[in-house]
């Protein structure tokens, strides 16, 4: 005979059921410990233990003083070492493919120190074949970067190539908005033209203020969300 579940196990099972059923979506805030305790007729200590169990299983994340947030299928991405590593850290099997690499004499970004640029266009695809992102990176054609159109990226990584070229980001700025896909982007992403995608435009510079990378990412909102905690 199986032993009856402990109270905190009943609470964690209840919350997990809501998550997997889609009643709690990625990024949604859970009720407070007090609200859960009153709703389920248990102590706050029991709720705290249940949340701890869910946290260990990467179903929720608890931010002290900021509530608990669902992270199922929406784990936080730390892209300081590149998107490929950030995505792999979530356990996702995502394939990165290069669409095109070309040299540019002029670019829609200011950088007095650069005489030439290299544009790298890549897509990321799920095992199902769904393309979830289209990224266009613009970097100064210096050192190993200048050879990328002929030799490709070092170890297939833009981050590794930038590091070998001595291009190290010290600061930058980022914009987030939503755009309708133009016909060219829609074709690459295999979506209807006019489909809404999240767009992140990010510019990073080195300690002297010279350009390191200007990247525009089109992200499928079914798989990516922008989250601000305050």
Automatic annotation (TrEMBL):
SUPFAM superfamilies: Chorismate lyase-like, Winged helix' DNA-binding domain. Keywords: DNA-binding, Transcription, Transcription regulation. GO terms for molecular function: DNA binding; DNA-binding transcription factor activity. Gene3D superfamilies: Chorismate lyase-like, Winged helix-like DNA-binding domain superfamily/Winged helix DNA-binding domain. Coiled coil: none annotated. GO terms for biological process: negative regulation of DNA-templated transcription. Residues 5-73 form the HTH gntR-type domain. The keyword DNA-binding applies. This is GntR family transcriptional regulator. It comes from Trueperella pyogenes.
